[in-house]
Structure formats: C-alpha cells, structure tokens
Design a protein that fits this description.
mainly alpha; 5 helices; rod-shaped
Length: 197
C-alpha cells in the first residue's frame, strides 16, 4: 500500500466521523420539528373542540326551546311568540359568528331548521314570522294571550314532524363536529299531538 491509499482511507474515516454526528443532529432537529408540529396540531384541535363545546352549551338550549315550542312538547306554553322570535335572532347571530368553527353540514342543518320554523324576509322592518299555528297556542293561554301576537304567525305552517327531523340533523351535526359521539341519536322528545297538524 502506498501513502496515497492511507490518506484516502483516513479522509473517509474523518468524513464518516464528522458526518455521523451531523446526520444525527439534522435527524434530531427534523424529529423535534415534527413533534412540535404534532403537539401544536393537538393543542389547536383541543382548543377548537373546547370552543365548539362552548358554542354547544350556548346554542343547544335555545334550539331545544324552539323545538319544544314548534312541536308542542315540554314547556312550549311558557314561551311568548316575541320571545321565540328573539331566540331566532340570538341563534342567527351566534351561528354566523361560529360558522368558521364548524363544518358546512352544521351550518346548513341550522339554517334548514331555522327556515322550517320561521318565515323570513317579510315586509320591510318586519320580524320573522313563526311557521306554526296559533289557534291552539291562543286556546292554551287564553287569559294571557296578547291579540298583537297574532301578527307573529305566518300562514305558511311547517310540519312539527319535519321540524323534529331538522332538529335531529342539527344535533347530529353538532355531535359530529364536536367528535364526542359520532353515532349520536336524538332521544325521542315525545310524540307530536295528533290534533295539531
């Protein structure tokens, strides 16, 4: 062997001894960045779920009150027509603010539910109209009924059964986006009285 071979061998050993720690350092940095990115993604997902749960806590009771009113179950007699219209306004505001946090299905389901319950874009400056019959409501609260409330109702009435189905779709979309129960099924809220439709 001549001295030139040894020098190439020594150079290869030296290069290998320098390359190995450098490769480990680069690999370590790469793994660290991937780990940090994964941690950030997890943190962001957790914060998103927390925010969605806050929106649920805020909106779900109002949606349920509207469901009860339009399907004549629960405390439907406790609600005045102007209160139901104000619930619609509150839900609309919260829904449009929270829309970027949820999937398209949730927003679409909420809008379909609202459209079944309320007739919008009436005369200029006029509130949304309730798409339900008022005769039974008036009969159930005869002493308390304000004759002006009659103006809150639309002649275009939605089926309480269709409203129940739309509500189920909203709650299913909520559950899907929150990720807590993808096989969510709305518990029966009672049957719609037969003499209502």
């Amino acid at each position: 062997m001549n001295s030139g071979d040894w020098s190439w061998l020594e150079i290869a050993k030296l290069a290998t001894s320098l390359f190995t720690p450098a490769a480990l350092a680069v690999g370590g940095i790469y793994v660290h960045r991937i780990t940090k990115r994964f941690e950030h993604t997890q943190w962001r997902s957790q914060k998103l779920i927390e925010k969605r749960l806050a929106v649920y806590d805020d909106m779900a009771p109002m949606l349920n009150d509207i469901l009860c009113y339009f399907t004549y179950v629960g405390g439907w007699r406790d609600f005045d027509p102007p209160l139901i219209v104000s619930l619609k306004r509150a839900i609309d505001k919260k829904l449009h603010i929270a829309a970027p946090l949820f999937g398209d299905e949730f927003f679409s389901a909420c809008m379909d539910f609202q459209n079944l319950c309320f007739k919008t874009f009436n005369a200029w400056g006029q509130d949304a109209k309730l798409r339900t019959q008022y005769e039974r409501r008036r009969q159930s609260r005869l002493k308390e009924w304000n004759i002006e409330w009659n103006e809150n109702f639309s002649a275009d009435v939605s089926s309480p059964i269709a409203i129940q189905a739309a509500y189920k779709r909203v709650m299913s979309a909520f559950a899907e986006d929150i990720g807590v129960n993808s096989s969510f099924a709305v518990a029966p809220s009672g049957r719609v009285p037969k003499n209502i439709e």
